[in-house]
Write a structure and sequence with these properties.
The protein has 417 residues and is an alpha+beta fold. The chain has twelve helices and 18 strands. The chain has a five-stranded mixed sheet with strand order 8-7-6-9-13, sandwiched between helices. It has a five-stranded mixed sheet with strand order 16-15-14-17-18, sandwiched between helices.
């Protein structure tokens, strides 16, 4: 659960709260803090264990059985814990088991892309219950049109699952482009027309009456991959999304790295040819113009006069069948991608590089040459894999981020019990 109890880290004991250095902190004035911390500890234990008994909670927490029973009663009255079944008897009456009520509330995760909008609903265990998607609407007024689309999809999804809107506790959304996380403003999204300095968090919170977290979509992806994907247990990870655009989410020592102006990971602007240094890249960068999905299709259509190769998927499939023109398009793009990935690995020394986005679905045609480039050029060689979540890493990252908002809500609720 990873509950945050404030700036100071506390270690919980049966009858006192101690600081990290063992100084006694309990006084009558902070007895309420002790109660809150103990209740949060029990709630976290139940969530971690799945099902457990009051006796087991007492054993693991160090709290007395009467204290556990009293605190559990409050958590049950609030609807956070439920009784379910009985455990194995150890000579007496079988203990009644407790579990966390994951349907106490729900969270929404949104992946906003240049080509499609996807919305997912999960319970408070993070289990995905339903999702829906539509092509991203790009009719003027551009911002309002997309915001209304997100609101409509969200309400429809909640309704179809039978949940009540008042049970939805939070939303998190991954947006393409440079996003200011503190203000919830999308500064620049090149693949969404008219999207500059859009106060997305404010617009959605006003429309939905929910707390909303906004971040870059690839930052969401690396969080999703660490939470439920191939990077579980990893602390230094690069997630590279290759689709309508190209971007990277950077996890350094377990923490997202966003940069001084929230523009870290904009690898679509990576310059890989010194002759191009005199060009000016505004909307799209050097790498994105050569290796993104639209770039592959544009090269096949305009340079090689193959209008039927209208998508990256079609180009890779044609190359796999032995089409020489498609093969050249793929080879050129992968040379750029391999160089970019090797450079990132050299600078950041990650444990793992995860390739995601639509182009990554090409599988071994993409990943084998990139692995070879790293093998030849990078001193410390990271593991390179395709996303285990395929095209849903952003959605899972958004759900994870929404759950972090709910953790704070649960802490506040427990404080009022």
């Amino acid at each position: 659960m990873g509950l945050d109890t404030g700036a100071k880290k506390f270690i919980i004991f049966p009858n006192k709260v101690m600081g990290e250095h063992g100084h006694k902190l309990v006084t009558p004035a902070n007895h309420g803090l002790l109660k809150r911390l103990n209740m949060l500890t029990l709630l976290e234990l139940v969530r971690a264990l799945g099902k457990t008994s009051r006796a087991e909670l007492a054993r693991r927490s160090g709290l007395s059985p009467p204290a556990v029973s009293a605190l559990v009663a409050k958590l049950m009255h609030a609807g956070l814990l439920l009784e379910e079944g009985t455990g194995e008897s150890r000579g007496g009456r079988p203990p009644t088991l407790l579990r966390f009520n994951a349907r106490f509330g729900y969270v929404l995760g949104v992946d906003l892309g240049g080509t499609r909008v996807r919305v997912a609903l999960a319970d408070l265990n993070g289990d995905l219950l339903a999702q829906s998607e539509e092509p991203t609407r790009k009719a003027p007024p551009y911002v309002r049109t997309v915001v209304e689309q997100i609101v409509r999809l969200s309400r429809q999804l909640v309704e179809t699952t039978g949940a009540r809107w008042r049970q939805v506790k939070a939303m998190a959304i991954g947006a393409p482009g440079i996003t200011d996380v503190e203000s919830g403003i999308v500064r620049h999204a090149p693949n969404l027309p008219g999207w500059r300095d859009v106060p997305l968090r404010e617009l959605l919170e006003e429309a939905l009456r929910l707390p909303v977290h906004v971040d870059n979509d690839v930052n969401m992806a690396v969080l999703g991959e660490q939470w439920r994907g191939a990077a579980q247990g990893r602390q230094n990870v690069i997630f590279i999304a290759i689709g309508a655009g190209i971007g990277a989410g950077l996890l350094i020592n377990g923490t997202l790295y966003r940069g001084a102006t929230h523009a870290a990971g904009e690898v679509g602007y990576m310059l890989l040819d010194p002759k191009a240094i005199w060009q000016e890249f505004r909307e799209l960068g050097f790498l994105e113009l050569r290796a993104s999905g639209p770039a592959l299709a544009a090269r096949a259509r305009h340079v090689m006069q193959r209008p039927r190769l209208s998508s990256a998927k079609a180009i890779f499939e044609a190359a796999r069948r032995g089409d020489a023109t498609a093969g050249r398009v793929v080879e050129e793009a992968i040379e750029y991608l391999g160089t970019a990935v090797a450079n990132l690995a050299t600078v950041l020394d990650p444990e793992m590089i995860v390739l995601g986005g639509g182009v990554s679905l090409a599988g071994e045609m993409l990943i084998d040459p990139i692995r070879a480039a790293i093998e030849r050029t990078v001193p410390a060689k990271p593991v390179v894999v395709v996303s285990a979540l395929r095209d849903r890493a952003q959605l899972y990252g958004a759900l994870f981020s929404a759950l972090q908002l709910v953790e704070r809500q649960l802490a506040d609720l427990v404080a009022r019990l």
